[in-house]
Amino acid sequence: MSDLVRTLKNEHGQLKELLDRVKVLGIGSAEGQRALRGARQVFVDHLAHEDRDFYPAFLAASAGRPDAERMAMQFAAEMTAISKDILGFFDKYKDGGSGLEYARDFGRLSAALFLRWHKEESILYTRYAELAATKAA
Predict the structure, then answer these.
(1) Cα–Cα dist 89/82, whole Å
(2) Which residues contact 92 (CB under 8 A, 6 or more apart)?
(3) For the chain, how many structural domains are there in total?
(4) Smallest Cα–Cα separation from 43: which of 11, 6, 91, 85?
(5) Among candidates 43, 44, 47, 39, which has minimal Cα distance to 75?
(6) What kind and span of H or E run contains 7?
(7) Domain range holding 14?
(8) Which of 59, 109, 65 is nearest to 84 (CA)?
(9) Residue 71 has pLDDT above 80, yes or no
């Protein structure tokens, strides 16, 4: 596994831990709000890392392979759409929240992120590793 992919997976792990912390502490507590702000920053930094390092590397490795190039563009476009919703959640609850609406929104956020991380780690990163290995050979 490349250092880049390892780092991106570690960032996913950090986000999972922060979201678990928010869930345990509750968004109504000062600690929970700090954890939520921390999760937002890690998420924003992760997106920047993908845009700056991962997608250009994936596209370089997929040069001449239209199917792989399409995959990268599709994943990037999906992430752009998902990111708006996720950032909207963080902004909506930056000063706290509680009740059914928060629980529902938090559940949607968690489900969207966990599904996305699964797709990235099992499909996108795997394809990148294959392309990078072929390019190196």
Answers:
(1) 11
(2) 105
(3) 1
(4) 11
(5) 47
(6) helix 3-25
(7) 3-136
(8) 109
(9) yes
